[in-house]
Amino acid sequence: MVNSNAQFTYQATRISTATKEQLLLITYDIGIKACNMAENAMLGKISGSPDYDIANREIIRAQEVIRELMVTLNREKGGEMADKLVQLYEYMHQRLVEANMKKEPDNIREVRGMLEELKQTWEAALVQLLKEYQAAHPDDKDLQNAVAEVEGRKPAASVPSAPVTPAVKAPVAAVKNAKAGSFTLAG
Questions:
Q1: Is 139 helix (H, G, I), strand (E, B) or coil?
Q2: Is 0.85 surpassed by the pTM of this model?
Q3: DSSP code at position 52
């Protein structure tokens, strides 16, 4: 019970202190994990035989994630891109409905793959933004070290530099955490 409470507290803190970029990645991770659980339950990998109750619960969780992704899109600012994302999310939602009705794990696998690809795309966009910010601030050693860490390179020796501003900390933290894979939440 103590471990469960500690895990809940950790997750609640992580979510309450996350940037909007981190929240997006957390949301994708929840959907991906739900799809994994649903597929495994449907294939009998959890209890040795198909468990459609667990599969149903996890499919519904993945559908909720997709609905959340749809309603949080800013369609006015996003324009055609946001409209295309809504269409993709609607397709994914429908595939999960069919998976639940027909007990079809391939549909779940398809949706999980799409969620993983979208998450990777957002991570790459965050890395690109971080690099652009770095190019505009070439003397910021903290930023250079953060980019090096995200790219898997060894950070340069610590050299005193100007303090990293909150505007830099958020994307650096979002990209660092995204690449570290630290957004997987327990269901």
A1: coil
A2: no
A3: H
